[in-house]
Amino acid sequence: MTRDARQPEGLARPTLPYSPVVVTGDLVFTAGQVALDARGDLVAGGIEEQTAQVFDNLARCLDTAGCSMEDVVKVTAFLADLTDVDGYNRVYAARFSPPYPARSTVGARLADNLLVEIEAIARRAGDGASI
User: Fold this and answer.
1) Contact status, residue 118 vs residue 35, Cβ threshold 8 Å
2) What is the full DSSP assignment across 68-102?
3) Average pLDDT, the chain
4) In the structure, how many helices (H) and strands (E) does the chain have?
5) Which of 58, 32, 56 is nearest to 117 (CA)?
6) CB burial class (10 A; 0-12, 13-18, 19+) of residue 110?
7) Which end of the chain is more exposed for a tag (fewer CB within 10 A), N or C?
8) What is the set of domains in the chain, with CATH numbers?
9) 50-88, pLDDT tens digit by residue?
10) What b/e sequence results for 10-45 when a residue is b if at least 16 CB atoms lie within 10 Å of its CB, and e otherwise?
């Protein structure tokens, strides 16, 4: 299978060696997204504001592959402080609808001032694929 790397519009271009989105067959993989706006600046606020920006960035990534948040089958989230899980869950529940994607949430040491990083795997509909 081929690896089709994509750069979403409205997403800061990475300065490190990775692709924000990779499509292979009917699967879409996003790199871990953080709460940076289109200029590459960290959004103001706490866990809920950062999580909302991260999900906006994930939606941009998925859109470039012809997907939406409804196509996500797996989410992996990294929280700088696991006591922020309630705020993270409030935003998560507002961005997805039941049945929710499979999910892992782990504590991690993130770069300065980053509270959350999230990556996702989605499955594109079409070509006989079912979600």
Assistant:
1) no
2) -GGGEEEEEEEES-GGGHHHHHHHHHHH--SSPPE
3) 92
4) 2, 6
5) 32
6) middle
7) N
8) 4-123 (3.30.1330.40)
9) 999 999 999 999 999 999 999 999 999 999 999 999 999
10) ebbeeeeeebbbbbeebebbbbbbbbbeeeeebeee
Q: Write down how long the chain is.
A: 131
Q: What is the phi/psi pair of residue 41, to 5°?
A: -95, 140
Contact 27, 1 (CB under 8 A): no
Distance of CA 120 to the CA centre of its chain: 5
Q: Is the pLDDT assigned to residue 1 strictly greater than 80?
A: no
Residue with tokens 């940076």: 36
- Alpha-carbon dihedral angle through residues 110, 39, 77, 59, given to the nearest 10 degrees: -170
- pLDDT interval class at 38 (50, 70, 90): confident
Determine phi and psi for 44, rounding to 5 degrees: -75, 155
What percent of the chain has pLDDT above 90? 78
